[in-house]
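input
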Amino acid sequence: MTTYTLEVLAIPRQEAYADDSSMMYAWFRPTFASDFTPISPGNLFGQLKTDIVGHLKRLYEKANTRVSNYKVARSHKEDHVVGWAHAMRAVYERFQQAMAWRDIVIIVAEYQRRFLDIWAVIDYYEIIEPRMRFVDTTHKVNPKWMGCFTEDVAIATKVHAAGVPVWLIRDARLVNANMNIVKVVSFTPPDDLVIGMYHDPVKLFAQPFDIINRGPNNRKRHEAAHGNEGVIGRKARVDKGKAKMSAKPAPYNATAPRQNKAVSGRDKWSDIDHPYMPPMNSFFKIALEDANKDIIRIKHPRDKMDDGYSLPDPGLFVNVLSPQSLASTSPRAQNWRDFLISQHAQEPSNTRTSGKTSKSKAATALLFQKEVPVLRALWAGPTNVHWRGKDIAISTLDNPPADLARQIVYEICEQSFRYELLDLDEHLGRDARKDKEARKERMELLRSIFLEVVEKNDGLNAPSFDAALPYFESFRKVLSAWEHFPESLKQPFDATGREHNIWKGMKECCLFYVQSYFDNTGRPPVVPHLLYSVA
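output
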């Protein structure tokens, strides 16, 4: 930019008004859990709480008072600042209506923008403009303003003399030798602000497109469409030139019981209520419940860790192993894959048939006459697999016993937890891996959290204080190298201390781990589950 706008010069900085509680609502970020009253439990349609609306109203009153004083000083001259105050009042009136949560996020931001514009423009007219008329006087820089962003050195010099902070945007190769650079600042895109309005506060993911409902317009459909509750845009049939709804939307019932629901799209902050899912470690379960799930905590993409799964989500295995899936009479994707890779496990029944598949088999057998018998023996595969010291018949895996299924899912959960802990430590504990020897020590410390052979619930899953203590102490040591490590956990866990305090520290370790993982990936981690033995 080669010019400046007067609004930008005097936009106030939040830090400068930390002692003014009413002013702080110019930067207030509403949260669904604490600042919103839904029209019914679980509904995304509702209103801001009364006390929040009251604070926002005082923000308007603050702006209106300043506009009134400004009008008096300018002999009641009507200009755009007065119109902005009326517009801000109109935005405030919208808080009296019930709206979708995402609309409230947008309207609060619009309300704050109008307030900051009014405040900045009046600061400009009352303070900055008079100073800029006298170019021979240099004023002390006012830290309350965000300042001027410009590429023009002349503009930077002029506004800086008026006491305005200046952010000179310039290629490093064009900086003059006599220019004193105090600090180089990188651009930080406001990604959290961009996606905040699209974030579903219940399902905890961003959904950027509104759900469309085609049909008669009424409040119920409006609520459903904006609240993302059950009404999905349906394609209309054309009958004699008139569009008709192909089906009526099913009524939404937030309290209806959910039995054997497909695990896809589940709330990953909660344990899965399924007979094949082993129970969650209680410390980590509490941590998942207590973690701060506000999206503003998630780091900028360049500072985040790769948020992909080291292993597939355990919930997917529960879904595949469910009786509904196992009893399906239709072939699944895996059935087709098994069929394709084992097409030579048996002799072709008739190489003269004209079928396309039979011809392909015959051609392959002719080309690989010597190799096919060897491959056929390999493709036949074993009849048993070895699992935790036991031989298990492959034929039983079509409908595995519940305890075996739970143990398989336990293994997936355990390995996922270990991989994710290692991955996050690579990201946050890099300072503890400065050289080859330090890295070796770090890996030994990570290994000491876990048992060599898991035959019962021990280690972090141990039910007794004495058994769990050394493993949680290793866990604490690993976490201590991460950023924002709690001061309350700086002291080692000592068996001679009060048992209540040690248990409290163990829970705090789990919460810190879960929170750190969410802040750096944007999703909850897979946490330890309890072991079930195979009968």
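quick obs: The CA atoms of residues 236 and 243 lie 5 Å apart.
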